[in-house]
Amino acid sequence: MWEITRDLIEKGRNEGITSKDWLRDVDLNFEYRLLDDDGKVYYYGISSDCNSQKAFAPLDDFGRDAGCTAIQYRQTYFTILVPNCRLWGKKKGEWVTL
Q1: Cβ atoms of residues 19 and 32 within 8 Å
Q2: Domain limits of the chain?
Q3: CA-closest candidate to residue 17, choices 54, 55, 48, 45
Q4: DSSP one-letter string for 53-86
Q5: Dihedral angle at the C-alpha atoms of 55, 61, 66, 68, nearest 10 degrees?
């Protein structure tokens, strides 16, 4: 599940857009941003997943139609206990491209 929280392209028009499976009571703990092929950030959002194929859902469901070609997640912990997580071993606050 995901939600667009900040729209830098359409002056906020797309803020609040969510995935079709979005549920209000589910924690969306992972911050992401959607970028174009020049690295320009178009949108920020939050997601329920940063590790499985579902982590690409904001890009696949919304971002590609808006001209985005990449998704990055912000590393929020110094150490992640799941070694196979894509964010494992990254510095806190660092953006990680999936």
Answers
A1: no
A2: 2-97
A3: 45
A4: GGGGHHIIIIIGGGT--EEEEE---S--S-TTST
A5: 30
Q: Which two tokens stand for residue 93?
A: 């606050």
Task: List beta partners, residue 95.
Answer: 74
46 burial (CB, 10 Å; 0-12 / 13-18 / 19+) is middle
- Cβ(36)–Cβ(68) below 8 Å: yes
Whose tokens are 């924690």? That residue is 27
The token pair at 78 is 């110094």
Q: Which residues pair with 30 in a beta bridge?
A: 47
Instruction: Encode pLDDT of 54-70 as tens digits.
Output: 999 999 999 999 999 99
pTM of the model: 0.81
Q: How far apart are CA 52 and CA 49, in angstroms?
A: 7
Answer for the pair 86, 73: CB distance below 8 angstroms, yes or no.
yes
CB 90, CB 96: distance < 8 Å: yes
